[in-house]
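TL;DR need structure tokens for one chain.
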Amino acid sequence: MLSDILQRGPGQLVAVIRDLDTDLLAETMVALANADGGTVIVGVDAAGRASGAIYPEEMAGAIQVAVRQSRPLVQVEWRQEEIAGGFAFFINVPRSTELHSLADGRVVIRSRDENRPLSGEEIRQLASTKSTGEYEEQLVPGARREDLDDEVIKEFIARWEEKQGREWTRTADEMLAQVGAVDERGRPTVVGLLLFGREPQVFMPHSGLVFVKFPGTEPRGEGGQAGYGRREEIGGPLARVLQRVWTVVMDEMRTGRWSRGWSGRSKRNTRPPPSARRW
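>> reply
TL;DR here they are.
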């Protein structure tokens, strides 16, 4: 997952902070929340090499300190990943419908790969856009029509035709425009990438899902190693994510043992007999 996020390098949706700097972390979280959201990766350089100097307990405290420097408080989620030489920490910052500032009064916004301070007029303009418009309709910086998967689009049209009982006689691009997946110039929106994107997580890392199965009650194993027995990173367009999640969950649930006492023999099956089912 780290390599996927860093594939395009630091930019509008990705910020990389090698060393633990709570002031820079707070500034970056506010900048992303005021813009299109994104991910802050802490503890690695732009090439993905771990600094090896940050531990989970320190990171948890630093995030709390950084969040308290925002006005109003920025809402974030974070996770850690063990890599060669240490840890990488991923802080997902969603696009906010509010205008955020720092404790010292500065208002910053993410612009390309920088946190840019705003002037008074720019702050007023940003405040007005925050109060109107829907996130799903926003354009995704850097995304192009080629980033949408034509096979997924065909599947969508086929299901539409099946449900409506008639043929879609216009072009696929007209359909995309009709459902709000692209703008008038064919540029993908947030909903367009989520529904039809080839790799939505490249632009919106927080749109994927990580499935982790722990065999016991502790998140860590012996010697501080990962304590989970299965871990899968699930990405792709929304329908593929849901489909894969369903498959993984059912796969983990599809085992059991029931005994039929009347037969004198025990039978192993992947499903209980009707009389043994509980809902």
